[in-house]
Amino acid sequence: MTLPVLHQMRVCRTYGPGQKGAKRLAQRYGRQLVCVRHRVNAGETRRYTTVELVVDSLPLTRQSSAQVSLRIPFGDQALRSILIACGAKWRPANQTWTLPRIVARQLRLMRYVVRAEEPVR
């Protein structure tokens, strides 16, 4: 049996795991089941039953809290003042400023990002 592409089918019903149209599949897939959908093809000649399952779960790491290291041009006092005002921390060991990635992006300073272990030029 050849299946049509999903985006060419129209969803006509969606059931949660505990609803009447999904109980048989809920027994089969257990807690992994998110929902059951009935779809019809473009000509509405066939109905397809699809399931949405949870297959993996990972903890989120928010990039907004990720820290980046910046190396700004020596003597750029204006940029240095901005970094201090934004709460950036000076790391004298590798001569970089550390601040949240989202702040660096908002200030358009991503061109100054370096790896933390990158040596001073």
Topology:
Elements: E1 10-15, H1 23-29, E2 33-40, E3 47-53, E4 67-70, H2 77-85, E5 89-91, E6 96-100, H3 101-106, E7 113-114
- How many separate helices? 3
The residue fraction in helices comes out at: 10-25%
Query: Could you give a short account of the major beta sheet?
Result: 4 strands, antiparallel
Number of E-state strands: 7
Average pLDDT for all residues? 87
Shape: elongated
Helix/strand order? EHEEEHEEHE
List keywords for this structure.
single chain; 121 residues
Account of the protein in words:
With 121 residues, the protein is α+β, with helices and mostly antiparallel strands. It folds into 2 domains: 6-53; 63-114. 18% of the residues lie in helices and 29% in strands. It has helices at residues 23-29, 77-85, 101-106, and strands at 10-15, 33-40, 47-53, 67-70, 89-91, 96-100, 113-114. The strands form 2 sheets. The chain has a 4-stranded antiparallel sheet with strand order 5-6-4-7. A 3-stranded antiparallel sheet has the order 1-2-3, covered by helices on one side. The N and C termini lie far apart (63 Å).
